[in-house]
Amino acid sequence: MMDLKGCIFDLDGVIVDTAKYHYMAWRRLAKELGFVFTLEDNEALKGVSRMASLEILLSKGNIHATRQEKEELAARKNGWYVEFISGMKPDEILPGSVKLLRSLRKEGILTAIGSASKNAGTIIDKINLRDMFDVIIDGNKISKAKPDPEIFLRAVQEMKLSPPHCIVFEDAQAGIEAAIAGGMKCVGVGSPELLGRADLVIPGLNKITLEQLRAL
Ligand code: B16
Ligand code: MG
Fold first, then answer.
1. Tens digit of pLDDT for each residue in 45-68?
2. Ligand 2 centroid vs 2 CA: distance in angstroms?
3. Could you confirm whether 41 is annotated as catalytic?
4. What stretch of H or E contains 110?
């Protein structure tokens, strides 16, 4: 039984499915570079930073690029991605998210976003969810990517809490590792095969109750 005081949510894969927009943009970049990037290849990019994602994509295509070329390629991909997410609406919020956030806040439990994305702020505004979070830590505020715990520790610090009182919700392995390294409890959102290191794995935020969270 834990004294739950704060919950930190990853964004892509937990609150919204922006992975499909990332994929559309990466696939387009690969196509311009002359190779096919599959949905399966895209799995390796989940939760991974933009530049690290580009490195994975380039190695898949056996492409060598200078630092400057990499900056240009990442910017090109991001331009398309920003265009795709510009049309996002609140109906893209994944089932159960709003209900869970409301019930946490009603209990006085603080809520935060801990997302690697530099576009997290834009997405949160598009889906009209800013009021639901006390703290938002995104890719612009941190220097070390997940599995480093920096992002979640910053969220805990800004909530003025300590890690043992917090739960992280994550869909990516690197995020689960980051939560564990930071001394927080962790709920994996997705498949138990991939997220087995989490304290609990659920298929979506509509499949969890406050009682279950407190029992962690
Ligand atoms: P950006 P999360 C992550 O979001 C995505 O899962 C990952 O695919 C993406 O490369 C990363 O954000 C960076 O995104 O290019 O927008 O800065 O899962 O940490 O919410
Ligand atoms: Mg994610």
1. 988 999 999 999 999 999 999 999
2. 24
3. no
4. strand 110-114
